[in-house]
Amino acid sequence: xxxxxxxxxxxxxxxxxxxxxxxxxxxxxxxQLMLVKVxxxxxxxxxxxxxxxxxxSYVESGEFELTIGDHKKLLKQGDGYYVPPNEIHGCVCxxxxxLIDAFSPIREDFISNK
Length: 114
Known about the structure:
Oligomer: single chain
CATH architecture: Sandwich
Number of domains: 1
Number of strands: 8
């Protein structure tokens, strides 16, 4: 699949349960760009990890303690963050919420595990 449909209706897209209080929903994408919603229950952890993709994210709701490299910050609704390629990062959800992640290029692993 080289790109998504032109429109993504939130209620028509299923959440993929990643376990441990985290769910993901892939929104629009092509080979250069991908938009993903990630829903966290309070206390859920986005484990420290890294990937070759550039990432920019927006806190749609909730509160998250973000770690990027050696930096740690509490972010809440309306805040955002940038993760350079291959930088170690992760989060702890303090208050139930949703992150909107943008990746470049596409996260092929998210499409194959959709």
